Amino acid sequence: xxxxxxxxxxxxxxxxxxxxxxxxxxxxxxxxxxxxxxxxxxxxxxxxxxxxxxxxxxxxxxxxxxxxxxxxxxxxxxxxxxxxxxxxxxxxxxxxxxxxxxxxxxxxxxxxxxxxxxxxxxxxxxxxxxxxxxxxxxxxxxxxxxxxxxxxxxxxxxxxxxxxxxxxxxxxxxxxxxxxxxxxxxxxxxxxxxxxxxxxxxxxxxxxxxxxxxxxxxxxxxxxxxxxxxxxxxxxxxxxxxxxxxxxxxxxxxxxxxxxxxxxxxxxxxxxxxxxxxxxxxxxxxxxxxxxxxxxxxxxxxxxxxxx
Length: 308
Hints:
Number of helices: 14
Shape: globular
Radius of gyration: 19 Å
Number of domains: 1
Number of strands: 3
Strand order of the largest sheet: 1-3-2
Mean pLDDT: 84
Strand content: under 5%
Largest sheet: 3 strands, mixed
C-alpha cells in the first residue's frame, strides 16, 4: 500500500461516501503477502528511532513478523506471540484474502501488537525477575492476562504512536481514527450481544457501519464476543482511556516505566499504586472511573520533550 497524499478532508470523512471511496481505491490493499510484510516492517523501522525518547529500555528479545498459518486465516487480523526462552516475539499477520482486507489500519495494528504495544509490554514482563513467575510467565490458563491492563496498554501504545507522529500519512491517520472507532463499536456490540440480547444480524449491521471490516471478519468478531471470550472486547477502549487519564500531565517516559514495572494488575490497583494511595481495606470497592477531560490531557503531554 503506497502512501496516500491524495487523501484530503473530503475523502477521509467518516461518511459512508468517504468510506466507500477509500475501499474502492487499489492502493488501499496489498497486492501480495510480501508487500504486506514490507508495509508492516516499514512502520516498525520508522518507529524504532523514537523509542529512546519515551522508554528507558526496550525488550532484549527482537520483534519479528511471520505470516499467519493458513488454518487460522479466518481471524480478523492476526495475533502476537510473546517471546520465549532465547527466541523472538512475533506478530503473525493475516495475508489471506488480501483483495478484501483494507490496510488503512496497518500502522495502528503494528503499534498495538508490536512496539510499543504488546511486545514492549510482554517482552519486558518476561525479563522482569522482580515479578513472581506466576505473574511474569504467560500460560494457557491466562492467570494474569488482565485484559484492562494488557489490551488497554496496547491501545494506549497505538495512541502514543499518534503523538509521536507516526500517522503523518493521511491514510494512516484515518486508519488510526477508524481503529479507535472500531474499539468503541466493540463496547456497544459486546454489551448488546451479552447483556441486551441483540440478534446476530443487528450486531453485524452495527459493526458494518462502524469501520472497514469485511463480512468474514465481522463473522469472526461476533463469534469471539458471543462465544469465545464475552466481555473481553470491553477492555481495549476502557483500558486505553483509563491509562490516558492516569498519565494526565505526568512525564510520559517516567509514566511508561512505572506502568511496565508493575506488571499486569487490575487498573484500579495500578492507579492507586502510581498515585501513592494506600491499599483499600478488604471488601472495599475497586472501581475504575474515567474522566474524559483528564484522559484527553494524556494526549497533549507528549508535545513536550520528556525529561531524561
